[in-house]
């Protein structure tokens, strides 16, 4: 039996439309370098949850595009519609200004103390099973780790 919501429940329908109109969905594309893939995979979900909490339930979805940062910068210059870039080399940010005019010339000095919006993720690899039990960075200072 079909029910016509307009006849049976006009207030329910109006409330549903009102609520549907209030919550908005936002999608961002983060263009980043390969090494940061797992970092952002871990950081994005809690950020999306906090976004919803701070923005009246609006849904944020962060998509990721990963490759070498130079390759990512070139992809943007060729039309990739990234909303956010997180690169590890200043030259890959600079080319977005130089070739694409996507950033102002003073992008490096716009933040206090000439802070630049790029960083580098450092990592080290150990042999399978971590036979020397290296965990924090400070343990790399031990002489026994040198070749």
From TrEMBL:
Question: Which InterPro entries does the protein's record reference?
Answer: Sulphate/thiosulphate-bd_CS (IPR000957), Thiosulph/SO4-bd (IPR005669)
Q: What PROSITE patterns does UniProt report for this protein, alphabetically?
A: PROK_SULFATE_BIND_1 (PS00401)
Alphabetically list the UniProt keywords.
Periplasm, Signal, Transport
An annotated GO cellular component of this protein is: periplasmic space
Q: Which GO terms describe its biological process?
A: sulfate transmembrane transport
Position of the signal peptide: 1-25
Domain of life assignment: Bacteria
Family classification: Belongs to the prokaryotic sulfate-binding protein family.
Which PANTHER family does this UniProt record tie to the protein?
Answer: SULFATE-BINDING PROTEIN, THIOSULFATE-BINDING PROTEIN
Name recorded for this polypeptide: Sulfate ABC transporter substrate-binding protein
- Organism, by scientific name, is Salmonella enterica subsp. enterica serovar Wilhelmsburg
């Amino acid at each position: 039996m079909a029910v016509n919501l307009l006849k049976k429940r006009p207030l329910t329908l109006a409330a549903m439309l009102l609520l549907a109109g209030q919550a908005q969905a936002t999608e961002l594309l983060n263009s980043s370098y390969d090494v940061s893939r797992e970092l952002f995979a871990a950081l994005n979900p809690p950020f999306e949850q906090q976004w919803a909490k701070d923005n009246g339930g609006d849904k944020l979805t962060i998509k990721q595009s990963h490759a070498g940062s130079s390759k990512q910068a070139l992809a943007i210059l060729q039309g990739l519609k990234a909303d956010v870039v997180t690169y590890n080399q200043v030259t890959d940010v600079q080319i977005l200004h130089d070739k694409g005019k996507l950033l102002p010339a003073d992008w490096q000095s716009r933040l206090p103390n000439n802070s630049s919006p790029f960083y580098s993720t450092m990592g080290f690899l150990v042999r399978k099973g971590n036979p020397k039990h290296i965990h924090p960075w400070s343990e790399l200072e031990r002489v026994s780790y040198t070749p």
